[in-house]
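Minutes, project check-in
Item: structure for the 331-residue chain
Input as provided by the requester:
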Amino acid sequence: MPITSSMASWGEVYDGGSREAEEAKFLALAQELLKVQEINRQKSGGDAMRTFHAKMVVGVTNAQLVIDRDLPIRYKAGHFVPGAKLPAIVRLSNASGVPQADSRPDMRGMAVRLVLEAGVHHDLLMTNYPVSHARNVQQFVAFAVLASEDRAVMVEKLISQFGKEEANRMLGNIQRGVRPSSSLAQECFWSRGAVLWASAGPVRFNMKPAEGTGIGPTDIATSVDSLKDEFQNRLRSLDVCYRLSVQPFVSEENTPIEDGAVEWTEQVSPSIGIATLVIPRQVLGATYPSTSVDDIAFNPWNAPADFRPLGNLNRARRVIYAASAKGWLGR
């Protein structure tokens, strides 16, 4: 049944017709991704790691999310109140499931954990490309499995499984998203999936460099730890700040909940700034990167109920991320 927000009607559609049927499919798909996780471990020759985003580039525990004093009333909910300063942990990463040099073309990720009262957390996960290559978790897992196997026959198998048009769309999306980077402080990050925002209804959210963060280098990363070194050097003299914005749901046609491959464009749903993430200037110590950050199992389902994830891909992450974490946290 559609749920009515203050602006538009929306709803979720469960694969198989019910939460229980969908959950059973998620559990089976989680086992497939655990196989990918093991393949990645063997390739790296080390301990078990996250299935994706294996290499942490930056990890800090003393960030803050500062809520705008003029926060629009529609987005005032829970811990998002005007002027609030929420302690935050930040992990910036390369997206590959096998650690590789920062100079390699890749997607990049940002995970932010807001530390609330009474041991409650609110995790915000983002990637530096606005949409997923996969419409749903079935496509996501199938693509990941094929990518972990023989790349020589990957395209052929994708076409066989999804048809030429869909295979080309997925491959094109990946090719556009996987690229070199010069500075993570200058990257934009998107949630790529919707979350509930209390009575405001569904939103997608994004982080973009704030004014005053500084100009990035002109050259892309060229060495194993170039992105880490660039970020570390930047923090010695200035704060690194990002603006958190939300894009409200408009309609199922233009801002779908269930299809992760459709962008919520700025033309259809302009971003509305609500807060600033501040990573304060500091000298990152000899223990950098922080193992305490790298051992956190971020999950979009680590959130108060009023901010729960929405859509097939997000619902699957609750099961799949938990299964993956059991593997790599046991290392």
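Outcome recorded: Residues 19-44 form the longest helix (26 residues).
No further action items on this chain.
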